[in-house]
Amino acid sequence: MEQEQKITLKSLAEELKEKIKKEGEKEKEPAKFKKPKEKIGEEKAQTPLAEEKEIQKISKKITKKEIEKEAKEIKKQKIEKTLIPLEDYIKCAVHLGTKVITPHMRKYVYKRRADGLAVINTVAIDEKLREAIDFLIKYEPEQIYLVCKREAGWYAAKKFEEITGIKTFTKKYPPGITTNLKLENFFEKELTIICDPWIDKNALFDTARLKKPVISLCDTNNFTKKITKIIPCNNKAKKSIGCILFILAREFCKAKKIPFTAELEDFTGELE
After folding, report:
1. Helix (H) or strand (E) holding 136
2. What's 187's DSSP letter?
């Protein structure tokens, strides 16, 4: 009996020593690094520059055969009328996405091309554009500003400003310009339009801080956190950005009774 008691006490002592040893080793281990929460608009860029250039190149060369094929598929959905002819959407490559599809944008994609590029549902583009327009026309030109840092959209963005009177930033948007009262060029607006949540993340971040609405062109590789109205589309190519801004400008001017005589090609450049 005495021997059994000694063995039990010894076992308990050993267990205690092992426990103390393990706890000591844990304390010596470096604390695990906790990844900080990502700020709004700070998701990693999803499209490599080489792929972006490839999309821009493909967008310039939409063949008649492709236009006919896509238009035929879209017409099967029996839609009554679109904001511009279906063929013009396809000519402008508005439907071409990237090879990356985020969970946020998956519902707008209906297939992949043979080269891996996603294809955005043109009917969804038209529907979301209508929603964005209905939201946009609630504001006056002096209450809105547009940001387009991507060079492919500069031409259309300037045309948009010229026709609508809406303040536009191309090349660079100064961070804090709407949130920092100490800045000389500080201004206040009620609605922000951006052409890419990643490229134009500074404007998105500032607007989110102010808890004001944002309309954004969103490609298949974009995250849509803090965006009020999404316009799913190819936001990498000149023609596509031009097409979307043309429609927004035309419908805004129509609602505000601002003279509008521009044609689609005034925003996109030559289509044929």
Report:
1. helix 122-136
2. -
- Per-residue pLDDT, 138: 98
Output the CA–CA distances (angstroms, integers) from residue 244 to 10, 12, 52, in the order listed: 80, 75, 18
The predicted pLDDT at position 130 comes to 97
**Best CA proximity match to 246, nearest among 162, 167, 138:** 162
Q: Given CA atoms 42, 225, 83, 94 in this order, what sign does their dihedral have?
A: positive
Tell the burial category of 258 from Cβ atoms under 10 Å away from its Cβ (0-12, 13-18, 19+): middle
Distance between CA atoms of residues 91 and 71, nearest Å: 10
Q: Are 125 and 89 in contact (CB under 8 A)?
A: yes
Do strands 214-218 and 191-194 pair parallel, antiparallel, or not at all (unpaired)?
Answer: parallel
Q: Are strands 229-232 and 214-218 parallel, antiparallel or unpaired?
A: parallel
Burial of 7 (0-12, 13-18, 19+ CB in 10 A): exposed
Model pLDDT, residue 9: 45
Give the domain ranges of the chain. Answer: 49-268
Give the residue ranges of the chain where pLDDT is below 50. 2-10, 26-42, 45
Class of domain 49-268: alpha beta
The terminus-to-terminus CA distance of the chain in angstroms comes to 101
Q: Where are the beta strands (DSSP E) in 82-139?
A: 109-112, 118-120
Compute the distance between CA of residue 266 and CA of residue 26 in angstroms, rounded to an integer: 67
> Rounded to whole angstroms, how far apart are CA atoms 190 and 198?
21
Helix (H, G, I), strand (E, B) or coil at 231: strand
Sheet holding 229-232, edge to edge: 167-170, 144-148, 191-194, 214-218, 229-232
What single-letter amino acid sits at 55? I
**pLDDT tens sequence across 227-253:** 999 999 999 999 999 999 999 999 999
